[in-house]
Amino acid sequence: MSVRAAVVSEGGNQQDLPVDLDALFRAYACDLNSFAFRRLRDREAAADVVQDGFLRFLVWNRSRPQPVGVADARNVLRTVISNLTIDLVRQKKSRGFHDPLDLAGPIADPYPTQDRFLEGREAYRLVKEALDASPPLQRAALLLNRIGGLTHAEIAVKLGLSPQQVSRYIVKVLDRCLVRLAAGPR
């Protein structure tokens, strides 16, 4: 049974009755979705526009001193959804067509720019200076851990130290490298 038929069967005046949004949605959502889809050619966007249209209609209708009756609700909804589709089409035209970011992957240059390359070389030089200035056992502990992939216990056995001492040595060398990087070139 349509909204209009339900109202008429109750014997009431169509204009005097408040709008039941649930019944209105059930009666007109399919028609309004088709209307929005014909303009947008996108089912998801059409469904979003229709939902937004019903929400805007509800807010607008509740704010009026004399709410719109059931008889006029369909026409108001159609106008609201028509305006929303026009706005959406204009937005898409003004923004232009955008490719998905997945397509941009092969286009982007994987190599660093010249300034990044020079910064990397400078950072390497500064870290190498800090490592060269470190005591041999500390430097060995860090290199065995970071480059050799050994655990602190394995390094302790190899260098004849305790695992706690290995940890302290690694932290000291890393700290020295960070301080040297922060200081920058001399």
In short:
The chain is mostly helical and 186 residues long. It is built from 8 helices and no strands.
Key terms for this structure?
8 helices; 72% helix; mainly alpha; 186 residues; single chain
Query: What is the arithmetic mean of pLDDT?
Result: 84
Beta-strand content bin: under 5%
Count all strands and give the number. Answer: 0
Taking the alpha carbons of the first and last residues, their distance comes to 85 Å
Q: Spell out the helices and strands N to C.
A: HHHHHHHH
- The number of helical elements comes to 8
Low-confidence parts:
1-16
> Quick one: biggest sheet?
none
Shape: elongated
Whole-number radius of gyration?
Answer: 35 Å
Structural class: mainly alpha
Percent helix among the residues?
over 70%
Write structural notes for this entry.
The chain has 186 residues and is mostly helical. Helix content is 72%, strand content 0%. It contains eight helices and no strands. Helix 5 packs across helix 8 and helix 7 (152-159) crosses helix 8.
Layout of strands and helices, then pairs:
Blueprint: H1 3-9, H2 21-40, H3 43-63, H4 70-95, H5 114-133, H6 136-146, H7 152-159, H8 163-183
